[in-house]
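Batch manifest line 83
LIGAND: zinc ion
JOB: complex structure
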Amino acid sequence: MFADRASQFADEGDVQVGVVVGAVIAHELGHLLLPVNAHTRDGIMRAAWTPSFIPRSGVGVPGFDHVQARLLRLRVADRVASR
Ligand SMILES: [Zn+2]
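JOB STATUS: finished
ARTIFACT:
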């Protein structure tokens, strides 16, 4: 179950489970909005996460790389414009 995995990951990394869930949501939104094979070596689209991936403070969670961030903005703007 996702909640159990998120909670275990948070415990192992000593971070708040809400920060983990937020990071997972961002990652999955990346899959919805970016082209196939969106995984990257680093950043929020990294395929495999370890507990140290998310800082204990919850601040400085890895983000999208520059190219992905720009593409996400363009795709969201396209969707908003086509409403
Ligand atoms: Zn993924």
